[in-house]
Design a protein that fits this description.
Blueprint: H1 4-7, E1 15-20, H2 24-28, H3 30-41, E2 46-50, H4 58-63, E3 68-76, E4 79-87, E5 90-94, H5 100-105, E6 114-117, H6 140-154, E7 164-167, H7 174-188, H8 193-201, E8 204-205, E9 207-211, H9 222-229, E10 237-240, E11 244-248, E12 267-270, H10 274-297, H11 303-308, H12 312-324, H13 332-346, H14 355-358, H15 362-369, H16 371-381, H17 386-398, E13 404-405, E14 408-413, E15 416-420, H18 424-435, H19 441-453, H20 456-459, H21 469-483, H22 485-490
Parallel strand pairs: 1-2, 1-6, 2-5, 3-10, 6-7, 7-8, 11-12
Antiparallel strand pairs: 3-4, 9-11, 13-14, 14-15
Helix pairs in contact: 6-7, 10-12, 10-15, 10-17, 17-21, 18-19, 19-21
Amino acid sequence: MKGIVETVKTVDRPIRVLQFGEGNFLRAFVDWIVDNLNEKAGFDGNVMMVQPLANGMGDMINAQKGLYTTCLRGIQNGKPVEEFRQITSVAGCINPYSDYDAFASQAENPDLRFVISNTTEAGIAYHAGDRLEDRPQVSFPGKLCAFLYRRYKAFGGDASKGLVMIPCELIDKNGDNLRRIVLQYADEWKLEKGFVDWVENACDFCNSLVDRIVPGYPRAEADAICQKLGYKDNLIDTAEIFHLWVIECHRRSYEDELPTAKAGLNVVWTDDMTFYRTRKVRILNGTHTMMSLASYLCGIDTVEDSVKSPVVGPFMRDGLFNEIIPSMDGDVEELKKYASDVLERFANPYIEHLLLSISLNSVSKFKTRDLPSVLGYVQKTGRLPQHLALSIAALIAFYRGTEFEGDALVGDRNGGKYLIKDSREYLETFASIYGAQHKCNGCLSKALCDGILTKEDWWGMDLTTIPGLRDAVEGYLVKIFDEGMEAAIRSLA
């Protein structure tokens, strides 16, 4: 069977989008959107990806000349729907760790207009020690500041060459935070006032919210899908049909430049995305994070099977409808309708959404997605949300390991290993506590609560100050260690 490179033609277009991130989500969301803009709205622009970490998918993407196939599947009007699209909007992927000049030279591209990113929740962060002369800087904001400075110098501060940043990382006010750190580097590096003015006036940093479930490469079905396509594609990207992109612009809408409505895309341009963000992060992402680690420790591997599980399914629904929604402001019936739609999306039989893929960076995810629900529920009811408290215990139990494999901590589920991926600092803290000698599971649980819940720099607060939380988590941990995760969930009934 021929490969996609021999079957599908590349399309040479100006590079108008620089994209930090080459993973499954951006390829099935942003690059899919750009492909639709090219076909249906005359955008006439390609994406150049930038690999945010030294190890990534860049070589695979370049081997296929940026070409790949998206496979969108779901149920519409009660009938199964499957849509394939050959994506030709990606020009390639640059690894700045091995070819920094190729990355930096994109700053001199006069056609470039948008910078889009998804470097995980931990990506928009300050890294002490980043310098302008680094090749590259460690942090994404550091790389971006150096990139913008090179563009500023290349075009002599021309305001028309300013860029529009649309980060997709799932943190509150992602654009505002990215702008703040970029300007922090500019100050530290003592860059001239003209550059700072150019960043503040010629560039724009939009806040954005993305919504599409993207399981990625369909390992078990790849051969069958390739037979259907008629060519070999090592980068098939599966996703649900639903998509939503909410973009909050401070100055103006950029829909005249990204004509998403003309392309029939579900993109909302707004000056206030608060409602959309809170609804999505707390209900969709928060439910994912609340249940995924507990479900995995019950021996379940996918979101669909979690919904169908007689143990995890009720745990998920009760936590969502009885704790997360009551913690929120807004029209309760509207929130319940959105939550019901989310559960229907979770149960999509065409989407194999692996729980281990959701587990990446769970500490920062819980802080962003679920901790606000814990605090809101306590504030509104005066009680502790027990399902959310159990999900914290599940997170701590999931991070059980003492040995590393590369940058990942190795966990064990019923004799089979799994990889725990998060900040090295977090993983080393868990490994240290689990590696110490403890006389009993109660002693281990106490040590974990002492060493994890109190980490203000992790959670933004000392979680033991939440009334009843420490005792609840400690009790659930003992139950998990003594009897297993299913028993702990059943104890909620």
